[in-house]
Amino acid sequence: MATKPKVLLLGKIEHAHDAWSAIADMAQVVEPQAADREAFMAECRSGALDGVAVAYRTFASVAVTGRIDGPLLDAMPSSLKFICHNA
């Protein structure tokens, strides 16, 4: 059996619960433990999120990640290929 790709969920899903259930059937959905940017970047650097290929962020996730900028991208896993946002 092939390994499921990892998807990082940043923020709480408010409405699209059926869609996220479908994603969970085809991917391993992981969520950070961090509650602020500094802790999130440390979590990324620790290797805890290694293997994540896609990140999906909500508006509220800015409280955890801060803005997407160079330092944040440098901390993210090298496996990350896409950052998605519903805006």
**Helix proportion:** 25-40%
* Relative strand content: 15-25%
Indicate the structural class.
alpha/beta
How many strands, what sense, and barrel or not for the largest sheet?
Answer: 4 strands, parallel
- The poorly predicted ranges are none
Mean pLDDT level: 91
Strand tally? 4
Helix and strand string, N-terminal first? EHEHEHHE
Gyration radius (Cα, Å) is 13 Å
Number of helices: 4
Main sheet strand line-up: 2-1-3-4
Shape estimate: globular
The span between the termini is 35 Å
Write the layout of secondary structure elements.
Elements lengths: L5 E5 L6 H10 L1 E3 L6 H10 L5 E6 L4 H4 L4 H6 L6 E4 L2
Parallel strand pairs: 1-2, 1-3, 3-4
What does this structure look like?
The chain is α/β, with parallel strands linked by helices and 87 residues long. The protein has a domain at 1-25 and 35-57. The protein has four helices and four strands. It has a four-stranded parallel beta sheet with strand order 2-1-3-4. Strand 1 (6-10), helix 1 (17-26) and strand 2 form a beta-alpha-beta unit. The mean pLDDT is 91.
